[in-house]
Design goal:
By secondary structure, the chain is α+β, with helices and mostly antiparallel strands. 61% of the residues lie in helices and 11% in strands.
Length: 342
């Protein structure tokens, strides 16, 4: 939210002039001296009122800054009451001192109580207006902040729902699979049953693990083999999956499927050339190795796997990493295990 307008330099320069003129007119009306307007509007008293307006404005702004910076009490109501009393007291002291000095050293006599009361009443009201502006601004800022946070939460929920839908359905893969099915129906009907079974097993696994936080790597690998088999029906580079997994661990559901799909989509398309994938264990990571044949303008980057990396950060301090050396790319995935109970 923007800063309160009373702190703006232009407002601080011009507003006391307007306020001083209004105060001068009010004093003339109270004292029934409106005839002076025709004789000498730009008189000495006008400049005194403008000067006092500058003084009270800067005093009010300074006090607002002080009370904002130093919280004297935890209660907002107590702080507000103390702020009002302190501001009015200082305002009365400053205005009374200024008027006594002006009357004594400029006019040559002391002001009476009625004149002091008029000046103090008017400038105290101005001081209260500054406090009211500040309090209303703070309240409006708080309300708008809550509304903005609520809107951001709604936006985040919509984005999460969309990502969940996108991850679960994988519309791009679904349409590609349907296109491949149409081609099989025209070219090789004998393979359609196997294709539909493979497609059904993959989507059954994706949908069944939708609400599960973690799955065993054996379960993920079983589905991954079916997934690779499904991808090989599509007009992309043919994949061969080799696994060297001997220990049991846990993985985020569909994470391996997602990574393999990103590898396939970022690799140069070639139906005659195979791409060999090796899934192995090393220390506390599961590594996926292959010879990178990236597309010119669509190579595999950490940003493409950021969703998987974010999911693993919930369960591990280790990060998903991608390294490439001599065209050999290694994707290191944190190995998740259930902590032993004491």
């Amino acid at each position: 939210m923007k800063k309160l307008f009373i702190y703006h330099p232009l407002f601080r320069i011009l507003s006391p002039v307007v306020i001083g003129v209004i105060v001068y007119l009010l004093i003339l009306l109270i004292n029934n001296n409106t005839d002076q307007l025709q004789e000498q509007f730009l008189g000495q008293e006008l400049y005194v009122c403008i000067g006092l307006s500058y003084l009270i404005q800067e005093l009010s702004i300074f006090l607002l800054w002080m009370f904002q910076k130093y919280k004297l009490t935890k209660s907002e109501l107590s702080t507000l009451i103390f702020q009002i009393l302190a501001s009015l007291t200082l305002c009365v002291i400053v205005v009374s001192a200024a008027m006594i000095l002006y009357f004594k050293y400029v006019l040559g006599f002391s002001p009476n109580s009625e004149e002091l009361w008029v000046f103090n009443s008017i400038f105290s009201s101005i001081c209260l207006i500054y406090i009211s502006l500040y309090v209303s601004h703070q309240y409006l800022h708080r309300v708008n902040t809550k509304k903005l946070a609520y809107e951001l939460l709604l936006k985040q929920n919509v984005e999460d729902d969309f990502l969940d839908f996108e991850t679960t359905i994988n519309a791009k893969l679904l349409f590609e699979s349907l296109d491949a099915l149409i081609i099989l129906l025209h070219q090789d009907k004998d393979k359609t049953d196997d294709f539909l079974d493979c497609m059904g097993r993959v989507y059954r696994y994706i949908l069944s693990t939708k609400n599960r936080e973690l799955v065993s790597i054996d379960e993920e690998l079983e589905s991954l083999r079916e997934f690779v088999k499904l991808l090989n029906y599509l007009p992309h580079r043919k994949l061969i999956l080799h696994t060297k997994i001997t220990t049991s661990s846990l993985v985020v559901p569909n994470s391996l499927l997602f990574i393999v799909e990103q590898i396939m989509r970022s690799s140069i398309r070639s139906e005659r050339t195979e791409l060999s994938l090796l899934l192995e264990e090393q220390n506390n990571t599961t590594r996926l190795k292959y010879l990178a044949v990236d597309k010119v303008n669509d190579e595999l980057s950490p940003q493409k796997l950021s969703k998987i990396d974010k999911a693993y950060q919930v369960y591990s301090n280790e990060r998903l990493a991608i390294s490439t050396k001599d065209k050999e790319r290694i994707i290191s995935i944190p190995k998740l295990e259930i902590a032993p109970t004491s």
